[in-house]
Amino acid sequence: MIRVHHLNNSRSQRVLWLLEELGRPYEVVRYERDPGTMLAPASLRRVHPLGKSPVIEDGGRVLAETGAVVDYLVTRYGPELAPTPDPDSDAHWRYRYWLHYAEGSAMPPLLLKLKLILNRLGWLGRPARGFVERQLTTHLDYLEAELGDGPWFMGDGFTAADVMLSFPLEIAVSRAGLDASRPNLWRFLQRAHARPAYRRALEQGGAYAFAS
Q1: Is residue 212 part of a domain?
Q2: pLDDT the model gives residue 97
């Protein structure tokens, strides 16, 4: 059985959601953030040296990094949640682009915004604020246009790319002012949160501050 090392209010919620979509049995090992630092507990380092979540164990294999975990689970257990594996297909590379974009491009400005909120950038805070806000606007405008009036980022069919993109968009609601003024993204989150597998994952993962 797959074991998921799950930190509250973290990227690992997506892994629970994906496993529910795949209908795979799994066990959740829960960890709570330190209320003062909001960091993961040191006990996670016993599972992986970086002490980050998510981490999964599957048949003796230990995997970290959300994108890698999602890619592994879809490749091994749910190819129906990815478009054709044909490397000559545009859909194949668009899908893989979104898997990497979610963490590689979308999350960094959101993390910088959190540091600004927590006032941890010191004298860099003032010039950084304008830069971060412009970056967030650029990314949200880009995603709004790329999604268009389609239900999902790959078109009519739900894929693991939607699972990956959900977390930065949920964070953007609380940190970047994402609301109904960007109707495509707003409806995307409503559709995601209405999926039965998403709701079941919330029950498994516990309280999740970014769910609506």
Answers
A1: no
A2: 98
> Do both 113 and 173 map to the same domain?
yes
Q: Is the same domain home to 50 and 100?
A: no
User: With helix as H, strand as E and coil as C, how does 162-201 read?
Assistant: HHHHHHHHHHHHHHCCCCCCCHHHHHHHHHHHHCHHHHHH
Which residues are 5's β-sheet partners? 29, 55
**Token pair for residue 107?**
């999350």
Residue 57 in tokens: 């164990």
Q: How confident is the model at residue 208 (pLDDT cuts 50, 70, 90)?
A: confident
186 and 97 within one domain: yes
State the Cα–Cα distance between residues 174 and 209, nearest whole angstrom: 10
pLDDT in tens, 109-130: 998 887 766 666 555 556 777 8
Structural domain includes residue 211: no
Name the pTM for this structure: 0.93
Q: What is the DSSP code string of 18-84?
A: HHHHHT--EEEEEE---TTT-PPPGGGGGTSTT--S-EEEETTEEEESHHHHHHHHHHHH-GGGS--
CATH of the domain at 31: 3.40.30.10
Two structure tokens written together for 5: 């090392």
CATH number of 127's domain:
1.20.1050.10
Strand partners, 62: 57
Q: What is the pLDDT of residues 186-205, one digit of tens each?
A: 999 999 999 999 999 999 99
The residue range of the domain holding 58 is 2-81+197-205
Tell me if 4 sits within 8 A of 19, measured CB to CB.
yes
